[in-house]
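The following record pairs a protein chain with its ligand, phosphoenolpyruvate.
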Amino acid sequence: ARTGEPSGWDGRGGTSDGHRVAIMANIGTAAEARSAAEAGAEGIGLFRTEVCYLDASSEPSVEGQRAAYAEVLTSFHGKPVVVRTLDAGADKPLPFLGQAAEPNPALGVRGLRVAFDRPDLLDRQLQAIAGAAADSGAEVSVMAPMVATADEAAWFAARARAAGIARVGVMIEIPAAALSARAILDAVDFVSVGTNDLAQYTFAADRQLGAVAALNDPWQPGLLRLIGMVGEAARAAGKPAGVCGEAATDPLLAAVLVGLGMSSVSMNAAAVSAVGTRLAGVSRAACVTTAQAVLGADDARSARAAATAGLT
Ligand code: PEP
Ligand code: MG
């Protein structure tokens, strides 16, 4: 174990019986990347690139983007990093995009949808990411946010591969994408479930609104059933699926996610050690059995109780 960390977590994630689960971090800045490396994250499962440009009044140049991304990636030289292309719109408007006001921004032109009208913007970002990968020596993959269909996934994958990026994935954060995970996985190399938005869209409950927060509880069985479908599709396709939303921050829930077929979990650096330690203390079989019990629960409270009973 690393100095100062609880015993049982040595920086290489997996269950007690040796089933591998990568413990990754979510970051948006170079400082967060350094904290993630210090916390023992094996890589970055979500680099939110829009965080670099929340105040930008004009589009950053390819060279500027390349330098900004390389500064972040350099903390993970030789390690896997998943760079997400700009997830602008809704709760994260980027001034330089000059997007028109919309009555329902969460349902509007956000994430990959921005690129359908402006593919040149995406292509410049992909070019910068490919350059930063070469500069930093990190093992870089890219993924797109807010993908709804297999066609969209294929469109993105073609552009990313044309930019020279070998490993391409998409986020599963729209219920239709979870329902179509098998077809999406035919078009890409991996998927990553964003439970924050997947919960918001599954329960039709604004993720920023305290009044509906109970619906966005990641223990809601309705959400976990969708994640289970993604796990099944990944198994059938022989390709990896992970979780990079807040759900992965809860060590008990992370074990359930492994039981649902997730092969990596990505979270805030602060949770890396606790999640890694928890997974090291449970067998894969217990995760799988418990996950099935959790899927049978009627509400979030009984889902959590079923997990506690099965895994403690
Ligand atoms: C998510 O939606 O779960 C996610 C990880 O993306 P973000 O929180 O950046 O929307
Ligand atoms: Mg999201």
